[in-house]
Amino acid sequence: QVHLVESGGGLVQPGGSLRLSCVASRSILDYTIGWFRQVPGKEREGLSRLSVSDGNTYYADSVKGRFFASRDYAENTVYLQMHNLQPEDTATYYCKQVGFGSWGQGTQVTVST
User: Fold this and answer.
1) In whole angstroms, what is the distance from residue 104 CA to residue 37 CA?
2) What is the predicted pLDDT for the residue at 73?
3) Which residue, 33, 45, 73, 105, has most beta carbons within 10 Å?
4) CA–CA separation, 36 vs 91, rounded Å?
5) What is the CA angle 18-57-49, rounded to 5?
6) Given a cut of 90, is residue 1 above it in pLDDT?
7) Do 4 and 13 form a contact (C-beta atoms < 8 A)?
C-alpha cells in the first residue's frame, strides 16, 4: 500500500494561488490519485482525479477551471495547482489513491484577508 503525504497549504488572500503536493512513498504510475477537501462538520468533497499513467483528469464543478492536477513521475508526486482561491475554498485538503488506502493528515488551506 502506498503512503501519501500532502503539503503546500497555507494562508492566502482571496484571488490568490497555491500549489499542493502529494508525495508518494513509491511509484504511483498505475494509480489514480484523487484530491479531496473537508471542512469541519461537513462531508469530504471530491475535487479531482488524475490518472497518473496517462494524465487524464476529472474535476468537480466547484473547482473546474480554477484547480489543475498534474504529476511528476520522477518525484512520485501529484500536484494540485489552485487559482483564484476564495474563502469558501478554506478546508483541509487531502490526496488519496482512488478507491484504496487510508486518509493522511491533509494540509490546511485558509483563504482570508
Assistant:
1) 12
2) 86
3) 33
4) 9
5) 70
6) no
7) no
Beta strands in 3-106 (DSSP E): 4-7, 10-12, 18-24, 32-38, 45-51, 57-59, 67-72, 77-82, 91-97
Mean per-residue pLDDT, 55-64: 96
The upper half-sphere exposure of residue 21, i.e. CA atoms within 13 Å in the direction of its Cβ, equals 10
Cell numbers that stand for 8 in this block: 503546500
What are the tens digits of pLDDT across the range 67-88?
Answer: 999 999 889 999 999 999 999 9
Distance CA 66, CA 76 (A): 23
Tell me the one-letter amino acid at 54.
Answer: D
**How would you class 26 by CB atoms within 10 Å of its CB: exposed for 0-12, middle for 13-18, buried for 19 or more?**
exposed
* C-alpha pair distances (Å), 56 with each of 26, 49, 69, 85, 99: 20, 8, 9, 23, 17
